[in-house]
C-alpha cells in the first residue's frame, strides 16, 4: 500500500484512541498559542474546518473568532472544488463530502481570507503536512497568498513526512 495512505490510516486510528483528558490540555495550549500569534490578532477573517470527532476541536476557535468580531469561513465542496462559506451562530449544516459537516448554503464568501487554519493528520515543524488525501487544501493553498497556520497535537508531530510536488507547505505549525 502507498506510504502516505498507510500513514493516513495509522494517524486516524491514533487520533481516535487518544486520551480525552490529555488531549483537552493539549488543545487548550494550542488555542492559547494561536490567539497570541500576530496573524490571529490582525486577521479580520479566518478560514477553518468544522472538526470531526478525532480531530483537534475547532469549535472553541470559531467561538473565539466570533467574540473578536472576526468573520469565520468554512470549506464546502461544490462540483469537486473547495469553496469557503461564511458561517455564524444561525448557520444550518449538513453532512457533505467525505462525511464532513458543512453549511447547507453554497454562497461563496466574498471577503478575502486573512488567515487559513489548515487541517491535517500529521505535520512537521517546518510546515510539511499530511492531509486527508483528496488534495483540496493543496489546490487551494497553491493560489492563496495570505497567512497559513496548522495546530499539531503531540501525536501529529513528525520529524519528516513523505511529500510530492503538489504538496503545499504551511507557513507556521503550532505544537505542544
From TrEMBL:
Catalysed transformations (reactions): (6S)-5-formyl-5,6,7,8-tetrahydrofolate + ATP = (6R)-5,10-methenyltetrahydrofolate + ADP + phosphate
Binding site for ATP: 4-8, 129-137
Annotated PANTHER family: 5-FORMYLTETRAHYDROFOLATE CYCLO-LIGASE, ATPASE INHIBITOR/5-FORMYLTETRAHYDROFOLATE CYCLO-LIGASE
Organism listed in the record: Leuconostoc litchii
MF terms in GO: 5-formyltetrahydrofolate cyclo-ligase activity; ATP binding; metal ion binding
Names of required cofactors: Mg(2+)
Keywords: ATP-binding, Ligase, Magnesium, Metal-binding, Nucleotide-binding
InterPro entries the record matches: FTHF_cligase (IPR002698), FTHF_cligase-like_sf (IPR024185), NagB/RpiA_transferase-like (IPR037171)
Name of the protein in question: 5-formyltetrahydrofolate cyclo-ligase
Residues reported in the UniProt entry to bind substrate: 50, 55
Family (UniProt): Belongs to the 5-formyltetrahydrofolate cyclo-ligase family.
EC class name: ligase
GO biological process: folic acid-containing compound biosynthetic process; tetrahydrofolate interconversion
Enzyme Commission number(s) from the entry: 6.3.3.2
Amino acid at each position: 500500500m502507498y506510504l502516505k495512505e498507510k500513514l493516513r490510516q495509522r494517524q486516524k486510528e491514533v487520533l481516535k484512541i487518544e486520551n480525552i483528558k490529555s488531549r483537552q490540555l493539549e488543545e487548550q495550549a494550542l488555542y492559547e498559542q494561536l490567539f497570541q500569534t500576530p496573524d490571529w490578532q490582525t486577521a479580520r477573517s479566518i478560514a477553518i474546518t468544522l472538526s470531526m470527532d478525532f480531530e483537534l476541536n475547532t469549535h472553541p476557535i470559531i467561538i473565539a473568532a466570533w467574540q473578536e468580531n472576526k468573520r469565520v469561513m468554512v470549506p464546502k465542496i461544490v462540483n469537486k472544488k473547495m469553496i469557503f462559506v461564511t458561517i455564524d451562530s444561525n448557520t444550518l449544516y449538513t453532512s457533505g463530502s467525505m462525511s464532513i459537516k458543512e453549511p447547507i448554503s453554497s454562497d461563496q464568501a466574498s471577503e478575502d481570507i486573512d488567515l487559513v487554519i489548515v487541517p491535517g493528520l500529521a505535520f512537521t515543524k517546518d510546515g510539511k503536512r499530511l492531509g486527508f488525501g483528496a488534495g483540496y487544501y493543496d489546490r487551494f493553498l497553491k493560489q492563496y497568498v495570505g497567512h497559513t497556520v496548522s495546530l499539531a497535537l503531540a501525536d501529529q508531530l513528525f520529524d519528516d513526512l513523505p511529500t510530492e510536488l503538489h504538496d503545499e507547505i504551511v507557513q507556521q505549525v503550532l505544537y505542544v
